[in-house]
Amino acid sequence: MSVNVEFSRQVFRYRDASGLTQEQMAELCGISIKYYQRLEMGQVNPGLSIVVHIAKVLNIDLDALKSKDTFVDQTCRRVRERDR
Fold first, then answer.
1. Distance from chain centroid for Cα 84
2. Number of folded domains in the chain?
3. Range of 40's domain?
4. Strands, E, within 1-84: which ranges?
5. Could you name the domain of life of the organism this protein comes from (predicted)?
6. SS3 label, residue 15
7. For residue 2, which phi and psi values (nearest 5 degrees)?
């Protein structure tokens, strides 16, 4: 699986978990909805500034966009913190 596809899947997972729409994400990241949709489909390689914006909007570390395990770990951590 390509890095771009894995990145796109991670962005989708976090966005979906956050309850944001693609339109909201695009607006919060300062990019067009068309570009954002292509990003989630793995059709574009976003620049570092866009990746940083995505992480900030989703309130996650940049590393969280790299692997499935990190997504699971951070989700579990958030649930534990919420339930305290």
1. 26
2. 1
3. 3-82
4. none
5. Bacteria
6. helix
7. -75, 155
pLDDT tens figures, 25-84: 999 999 999 999 999 998 988 888 899 999 999 999 887 877 555 554 565 566 567 777
Q: The pTM is what?
A: 0.74
The CATH number of the domain holding residue 75 is 1.10.260.40
E strand or H helix that includes residue 74: helix 68-82
Residue 82 dihedral angles phi and psi, to the nearest 5°: -65, -35
Distance CA 65, CA 83 (A): 24
Give the helix/strand (H/E) hosting 67: none
Given the structure tokens 């990003």, which residue do they identify?
A: 39
